[in-house]
User: What shape does this take?
Amino acid sequence: MTGAGVGAGSAAEADGDGGPAGGGGEARGGDGAGRRGDSETRGDGARARGDAVAAPARGTRGIIGASDLFDHVDFRLREPAPALRPYLEQYWLIDWDLSEPYTSQVVPHPNVHLVLERPGTGDDPEPAGSAEVHGIVRGVFTRRLEGRGRVCGVKFRAGAFRPFAPHHPVSRWTGLHVPADEVLSVPPDSPAVSSVARTVLDEADEDARVAALDAYLLRVLPPPDPQAVLATELAELARTDRSLLRADALARAGGMSVRSLQRLFSAYVGVGPKWVILRHRIHEALRHADADQETDWATLAADLGYSDQAHLVRDFTTTVGAPPTAFAQRR
Assistant: This one.
């Protein structure tokens, strides 16, 4: 989890078996679209406190205990400008004002995030904002929230971050939180991202925050990179094609060797293709465990391409820290 603890899932993958992230799902006022006008996406099943809750879907996958999280924070998803969508899945916006600390957890997705954050305990009326690049997190990300805070996060499509930081493979940032100015390559006439963080975070109006993010990222938009396009297409295929259960199958789909696919993913995604495929399977298992204590785990294991239930249980336990049945019972 990045930012307020849901960004790396986000803020958990906007998926729910649909297409790429962006809109859809539960919206305040009954409109199912992501807001660029009047309606406001609450995480496609996420909500602001007091709003009705739909079944977890886009925007909540990967969040452990999503409904509890949304009792504590105000979480929204917004679409970027059309020209940015080949690179970005979504913006995720979180505000919190807590009387007691709250700990959130997410099983992250294979995405890099740019996180503009203003943490606060309530003592500083004008806390400064920070800007960090959050690489892919391999394990469960745990974040303790307290006092007041605000995050404006940018979720890059898997494979699409490298053009913004072309000097290093994306695997360089895996597991790290790094000041954005040390990572992003911006034109000489453009301000550093740290200089715009406070401007974005200070905007009281949410539309103005989104507009400020759009304006800055359009200004630093990199030239096209065919390898990034290929990596993004293959990473998306790994997410959506349930028949691709192994790296060699994904390599064949991309018309390349497994070694070439591994090099591409290291350079542009940040983790290997096997990890990406496995993580999407774990997210599906987590969705069942979080929603249904009566899941037939043997059948689900077969549906997800596991050789047997024990293999699924091992992967789930290694990732989440508890076997799926034990996890489901405590939900």
Q: What stands out?
A: Confidence is low (pLDDT under 50) at residues 10-58. The CA atoms of residues 1 and 8 lie 4 Å apart. DSSP finds ten helices and eleven strands in the chain. The first strand starts at residue 27 and ends at 28.
